[in-house]
């Protein structure tokens, strides 16, 4: 059952979630609570069910058992930006919002991600990093209480990825929405999140709290130690 949270102390609350594909249990009695404004990262081996969990929280998969309560306003950005090629960038940003396409609203969101100059172009003109920023603008324009990010930076080159991570950190500081970031990048999770979850066998197997001031330096010994701890949870021992 999926319901919306009202006046709640959580941005998302999952109780006893189970999701099967055929006779395979991909998520198995999973529990998760995300506080309003909390930044949570989700790590786990490929195929462990991270994207499935995110899709359930996004309301894109409702064939589940268990209880899933999610903030009314939520938005998703995927690994591939998924912009409609036949609509200009600004129209993509406000696509699906009720009422007439509101250009001023699109422009404001594009300005936030540093893409004002790309508002009136076709998506094919954008670089990978720009397309991902447009996708973020499309999520932000919905003023979400819960922002779901599914490996949003993984297709970007290393430099662009660092810039995009810094942008997300800045946007989160301003908007203070709860974030669930699915990622394969352990360093990214420690740089950005308040709490890092490691998923295995359909449940949250480990949880690491990152109680460090921001911005975080990847060379900081405390960051290095947390990174090693998470890698060990993932079965990688240095
Ligand atoms: N629509 C579907 N039908 C059948 N099986 C599916 C479907 N979607 C996902 N699965 C299976 O569920 C398991 C979990 O998939 P999911 O995409 O959630 O993993 P993931 O942890 O996000 O992986 P990755 O890190 O590689 O993206 C995989 O074994 C996948 O093959």
Automatic annotation (TrEMBL):
It comes from the Bacteria. Pfam families: ABC_tran (PF00005). SUPFAM superfamilies: P-loop containing nucleoside triphosphate hydrolases (SSF52540). Residues 12-226 form the ABC transporter domain. One of its GO terms (molecular function) is ATP hydrolysis activity. Keywords: ATP-binding, Cell membrane, Membrane, Nucleotide-binding, Translocase, Transport. This is ABC transporter ATP-binding protein. It comes from Nakamurella flava.
């Amino acid at each position: 059952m999926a319901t919306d949270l009202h006046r709640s102390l959580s941005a998302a609350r999952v109780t006893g979630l189970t999701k099967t594909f055929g006779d395979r249990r991909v998520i198995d009695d999973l529990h998760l609570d995300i506080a309003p404004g909390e930044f949570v990262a989700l790590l786990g081996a490929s195929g462990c069910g991270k994207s499935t969990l995110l899709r359930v929280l996004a309301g894109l998969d409702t064939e589940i058992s268990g209880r899933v309560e999610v903030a009314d306003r939520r938005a998703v950005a995927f690994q591939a930006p998924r912009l409609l090629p036949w609509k200009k960038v600004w129209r993509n940003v406000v696509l699906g919002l009720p009422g007439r396409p509101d250009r001023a609203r699109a422009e404001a969101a594009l300005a936030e991600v540093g893409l004002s100059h790309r508002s009136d172009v076709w998506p094919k003109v954008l670089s990978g990093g720009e397309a991902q920023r447009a996708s973020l603008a499309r999520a932000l324009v919905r003023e979400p209480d819960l922002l779901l990010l599914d490996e949003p930076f993984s297709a970007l080159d290393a430099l662009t990825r660092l810039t995009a991570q810094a942008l997300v950190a800045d946007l989160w500081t301003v908007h203070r929405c709860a974030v669930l970031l699915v990622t394969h990048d352990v360093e990214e999770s420690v740089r950005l999140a308040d709490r890092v979850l490691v998923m295995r066998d359909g449940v949250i197997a480990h949880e690491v709290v990152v109680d460090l001031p921001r911005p975080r330096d990847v060379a900081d010994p405390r960051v290095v130690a947390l990174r090693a701890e998470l890698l060990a949870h993932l079965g990688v021992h240095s």
